[in-house]
Amino acid sequence: MEVRKLTVGYGAAWVLDQVSLQIGAGEFVGIVGCTGCGKTTLLKAMAGLLEVQDGEILLDGENIFSRRFDRAVLRRKVGMVFQYPEYQLFAQTLEKDVGFGLKYSRLSREEKQERVRWALEQMGFSYEEIKDQSPLSLSGGEKRRVAIAGVLATKPELLMLDEPLAGLDPMAREMFLEFLEGLTGQGVSVVMVSHNVDALAQHAARIIGMKQGKIVMDGSCQEVLGDSRALRTIGLLGSEAAQTAELLRANGVLPGSGLPVTYEALRDEIIGALTGEKGENR
Ligand SMILES: Nc1ncnc2c1ncn2[C@@H]1O[C@H](COP(=O)(O)OP(=O)(O)OP(=O)(O)O)[C@@H](O)[C@H]1O
Ligand SMILES: [Mg+2]
Fold first, then answer.
1. Ligand of minimum distance to the alpha carbon of 42
2. How far is the CA of 256 from the centre of ligand 2 (A)?
3. What is the whole-number distance in angstroms between the Cα of residue 198 and the centre of ligand 1?
């Protein structure tokens, strides 16, 4: 997907101001920025859900705003998990809810059922146990996982997630992130908005930083999350590992430049400093 000079406004002010970016197949991209900077608006626009004032969005080279563009293609290829997905559950049973996005697909009944089973299992549920339950019987975090399963079941080529980690406990969070990484290995592109910089440092290869409706940083995870000064200008702090490294550097414990953004990289750097050698992964 390619976004060119996208401009979106609600009323008088621009919420997105000439935003351009490209997402390649199999990329895992994190989007960071303080609250109100336009992250959700960007994702919704990329999912074709907003009217835009200016700019283009190309999906496999086709402009989604063109009159000739078949919107069904967008619905098939792009999936979005909303910021508060638990409010989207409404069917009588979880099976129907998770299968909702497949209603108009050409899959057979058995194939649809398999998809629903697969999606629920990926989100840590037992299909047989849960399929006939009402969404109302679930806890907040469970509802969230079911809502994510509903998007997974459609097997999008581009999966966009708006703050999906809130409400997942640490184990579920880690498993989910590893699952997403697995999807990118199969060529699925994942775009994730998150305030959890540490999770992004571990799993996203590329980070986009936004401020007041503009993209102000776009680079490798190391480049963006390791640049604590630039991060502070958009109201964010680096990963905990990067902050620790910064503190160690300021006190002369670590040499060099460029902050390690994960604890693994930091550990390597400390070992390197202690032994006088470069760490294995550097
Ligand atoms: N439907 C709307 N009508 C009017 N203004 C809106 C609407 N949706 C969002 N905005 C405004 O657009 C700006 C960007 O909102 P957006 O939801 O994209 O921010 P965000 O980066 O996702 O923030 P958060 O981290 O809090 O989720 C905000 O100033 C918000 O008030
Ligand atoms: Mg938001």
1. 1
2. 36
3. 24
Q: Tell me, what's the pLDDT at 4?
A: 98
**Angle between helix 140-152 and 170-185 (nearest 10):** 10
Pocket of ligand 1 (CB under 6 A): 10, 15, 33, 35-41, 83
Q: Which atom of ligand 1 is nearest to the CA of 34?
A: 25
3-class DSSP state of 85: helix
* Ligand 1 pocket mutation, candidates 34, 37, 160, criterion most atoms within 8 A of CB: 37
Report the top-level CATH class of 2-235.
Answer: alpha beta
What radius of gyration do the chain's Cα atoms show? 20
- Closest Cα partner for 77 from 111, 105, 113, 117? 105
Answer whether 227's CB lies under 8 Å from 234's CB.
Answer: no
DSSP run (H or E) holding 223: helix 221-225
Span from the CA of 171 to the centroid of ligand 2 (angstroms): 24
Direct distance between the N- and C-terminal alpha carbons of the chain, in angstroms, rounded to an integer: 32
Tell me the CA–centroid distance for residue 106 and ligand 2, in Å: 33
Q: Where are the domains of the chain?
A: 2-235, 239-276
Q: 206-232, pLDDT tens digit by residue?
A: 999 999 999 999 999 999 999 988 999
pLDDT band at 103 (very low <50, low <70, confident <90, very high): confident
- How crowded is residue 94: how many other Cβ atoms within 10 Å of its Cβ? 27
